[in-house]
Amino acid sequence: MSFKIKKILKFLNPSQFNTSTSPPKKYNTFEGVFKPTLLTILGAIMYLRIGWVVGNAGLWGGLTVVLLSVSITVATGLSIASIATNTRMGDGGPYAMISKSLGLEIGGSVGVPLFVSQALAAAMYIFGFREGWLFLFPEHPPLLIDFTVFLVIFIIAYISASFAFRVQYLVLILIILSLFSIFSSSLTWESNQTWQDWGDFSNISFWGVFAVFFPATTGIMSGVNMSGELENSRQNIPIGTLSAIALSTIIYVILCWWVARAAPPQELINNYTILVEKSRWQFLVLMGLLAATFSASLSSLVGAPRILTALAKDGVIPWGNGLAKLSKNGEPRRALLVSAGIVLLALLLRDLNAIAPLITLFFLLTYATINLVVLVESSLGLMNFRPTFKVPIIVPLYGILGCILAMLVIRPFLSLVAIAIVLAIYLRLVSLPKEKRPADVRSGIFTAIAQWSAMKVIQLDLTNVRAWKPTFLVPIEDGSQLLGEFRLLLDLSQPEGFLQLLGIVTNNQGETLSLQLRELASSFRHHKLLTTISVMKVELESEGMIAALQALQSAFFRPNILFLRFPDQASDWDQLLPVFNEAKLLDVGVMLLGLHPSAGLGRMEVINLWIRPQLEDLPMIERLEKGNIDLAILMALRLSKAWKAQLNIISVIPKEEDRKEADNYIKSLRDLCRIPATANNLIIVGEFPNCISQTPQGDMDFIGLQSTPDFHFVNQIITMTGSSCLFMSDSGSESALA
């Protein structure tokens, strides 16, 4: 290989010449999401069928077809944005979205047909390119055109996605020039053509026109497929996808108006190249058509291997270990070879008309499932579903119904075939051996069902509940203790939490305490909070707590938070120390309430969350996980929402030089934990007790509990803050990052 050739290849793909494995390139919003999504939407249907749509449906009918089609993809795009802002997206795009929520079985049953459809779509776009090329050079052999285009696309995709995205810049320029050629035509401002408002639909129905046009709007996954290689998927996917949908919609609407003024309806119906013939520079529009189909095929061939790689990593498909391996520069080349094989086989078939609608139907099934994810997760109200981009529940509901409608309109019988294929794959996956798999929201669904059922039948045989939610064990010696804490416990538990009231009797007042607890439990249930009660007679209060913690480990709702009260005397504190130790051994979090004797719950308007910055030289995720702050963050977020209170995040650092690192830590924590933007940050230099006077007066302070809690320290903090405090210790099962 000559020096010049090596230099050129090194420029196109420099990582190929590195001897060590390098991390894959990360793409921004424009390059990784917006551009491929826009170029896939603006495809052959825009150039060859938009006139036919308006010719059959009229201007207003055509606009109705366009906007109805777009409304389904807008709903799906909004659902995609909501999911993307709720989690750190991994590889696999739509498959990752579905499998993380509804499980690998459902994700795989949709993901496998989606991968095949993505690969077959590449072949379809190559056929579209061939038709445009033959318009220019009718003497060229069709088979040679197909294989030449396939080879070029394969080489580009094989080099790297980065190179493919560079090529798409040229494609984008050609499409822009083609649109300029169309809109600069004289008929844009000089046209005597009277358009038809509504078509007579003599040859085809409104829904038939809709079925032809709708595939033009199904390119919104091109950017989502790159989820594992984006700089910040939580930002890149929502902004890139929604902006591409918005811009493409504007272009389609303007083109409907343009073609309505370009020719009479009959000519629009019969002449598929009306945009070419009526444009200012016909050659530019033809180049735009070729570029659009070329780019769509390239995007499909770049996206399909990434879905296959994610399926392989999760063991959804056979030979997953081999297909999941990446090249040195992070490219899924083994999966690309499989994808290219499917494309090549489809090209040899020479005609995909029979299964082309099936491809669209698989895309629609994927869209419907993504909408279902948002509908299910938002309906359950789980703590792990806290998207920073929230959508009303009507959006995913409309998306599901719209996808079902589109499927029935396009091909009713093939829709049943598509559903049967997905169902067959699902049944195959659920029959496979159950290995340890990533957690998903299905456990949250089962938990929600169990909670509803437990209001009637307390004991249910359900295990492996994953979705974290507060399950309090609240020891009570006197029912009057709980009256002052009723509102606090209610706000910390609602809407999906669970209270286990544990009456501890050390005298002969057991019956009285039972009556009090039943009354209190009834009050909690009145507020739709699942509550159970039990009473234990013991010699020492600490013995009852330890026995309850041990006995409830196999309970239907295992307690994950032990709610304790700060005692008035140091002698009582000594009895609590064994309880702290037992809770730690059993992985139960501890919440110690220090109720200020004068302030009580105060105004319930200001919450101070004290966070100790982790300044070690570790990756940010590891630093956040070391902080023992997950329970404090989750409970502070919950209480601030219930109280509609101002949340202050307060950190203390020993020296001024640590301020920048501490500020970066807090910013990362806020982003990863989706802490509302209205929360305030405050970093103070000094010793913790001495800094309390410099903070805003709170109504409740959330503070980490020492590994060996000290009575005098806790008492000092309650006094110095002048407010009630909740001292927290994590159980290890909760995560503010989830």
TrEMBL record:
It comes from the Bacteria. The chain crosses the membrane at residues 33-52, 58-81, 102-127, 147-165, 170-189, 204-225, 237-260, 280-304, 335-352, 358-376, 388-407, 413-430. Keywords: Membrane, Transmembrane, Transmembrane helix, Transport. GO terms for molecular function: chloride:monoatomic cation symporter activity. Residues 602-737 form the Prokaryotic cation-chloride cotransporter second C-terminal subdomain domain. It holds the Pfam family CCC_C_2nd_pro. It is a multi-pass membrane protein. Residues 36-444 form the Amino acid permease/ SLC12A domain. Its main location: membrane. GO terms for cellular component: membrane. Gene3D superfamilies: Amino acid/polyamine transporter I (1.20.1740.10). It is found in: Membrane. Residues 474-601 form the Prokaryotic cation-chloride cotransporter first C-terminal subdomain domain. Belongs to the SLC12A transporter family. This is Na-K-Cl cotransporter, putative.
